[in-house]
Design brief:
Structural class: alpha/beta
CATH class: Alpha Beta
Distance between the termini: 38 Å
Strand content: 15-25%
CATH architecture: 3-Layer(aba) Sandwich
Radius of gyration: 18 Å
Shape: globular
Strand order of the largest sheet: 5-6-4-3-7-8
CATH topology: Undecaprenyl pyrophosphate synthetase
Largest sheet: 6 strands, parallel
Helix content: 25-40%
Number of helices: 8
Number of domains: 1
């Protein structure tokens, strides 16, 4: 979702630490999550894969509430990648139906909680009725000042970069004026700080194209827990590990 003139936008806010958890530990400002393991969770339960995705959506509210308790202000969820279109068509269509149902069911609830929704990704391949539901939810929550919840859907990091280049070329930006700061204004995340912490559930240890530009100094944590079972206790373990890490952003330990 891009406007016509990106040059007038302010730069993306810099990454910064969030507040403090109830136990006094430092908390990340922005947590991004690769919600992996839904299908494997379902298979272990003897259920169709789509039931795992439905169970994963049921987990969202409790994790968002736990994030707010810990002082996290931005949460970004990786829900569907550009590569996921290659999955069986029945699963893809099921995922689209689940997203539409969740948006329509949860938007008012999130609005009452002062949560602002954002969409990161392509929109040209979504059905008109799905996109209409998303736009309604985005507009409903646009003025909210609480937790910022971004959903990356039909998102791919390389695709995001290519799309940004297309918009820069379309805006006739001279090459000598292209800086990291300007380039960041053309990304889907232009109004968001870079993630401090990226969590991947399900035990895999790769980013799978998730926020490659924005994650250069993000801390990374791989949880063995499948996303439907990822609860507040597991989040506490992840945030405890994060609180013990020294973020240097390229400097030496003694340079602060």
């Amino acid at each position: 979702m891009s406007d016509t003139d990106n040059r007038t936008r302010p730069a993306s806010p810099p990454a910064q630490e969030g507040g403090h958890s109830p136990n006094g530990r430092k908390a990340p400002d922005h947590v991004a999550i690769i919600m992996d393991g839904n299908g494997r969770w379902a298979q272990r339960q003897g259920l169709p894969r789509l039931e795992g995705h439905r169970a994963g959506t049921d987990n969202l509210n409790r994790i968002l509430e736990a994030m707010e308790k810990h002082g996290v202000r931005y949460v970004t969820l990786f829900a569907f990648s550009t590569e996921n279109w290659s999955r069986p068509w029945e699963e893809v269509m099921g995922l689209m139906a689940i997203l539409k149902s969740v948006v329509e069911r949860e938007a008012l609830n999130l609005h009452r909680k002062n949560v602002r929704l954002r969409y990161l990704g392509r929109t040209d391949r979504l059905s008109p009725d799905l996109w209409a539901s998303i736009q309604w939810a985005l507009e409903l929550t646009r003025a909210n000042t609480g937790l910022n919840l971004s959903v990356a859907f039909d998102y791919g990091g390389r695709d995001e970069i290519v799309q940004a280049i297309h918009r820069i070329v379309k805006d006739n930006i001279p090459p000598e004026q292209i800086t990291e700061e300007l380039f960041g204004r053309y990304l889907y995340t232009k109004d968001l700080p870079d993630p401090d912490l990226i969590i991947r559930t399900g035990g895999e240890q790769r980013l799978s194209g998730f926020l490659p530009w924005q994650s250069v100094y993000s801390e990374y944590y791989s949880s063995l827990v499948f996303w439907p079972d990822f609860d507040e206790a597991e989040l506490d373990r992840v945030l405890l590990a994060y609180s013990h890490r020294e973020r240097r952003f390229g400097s030496l330990y003694h340079e602060k």
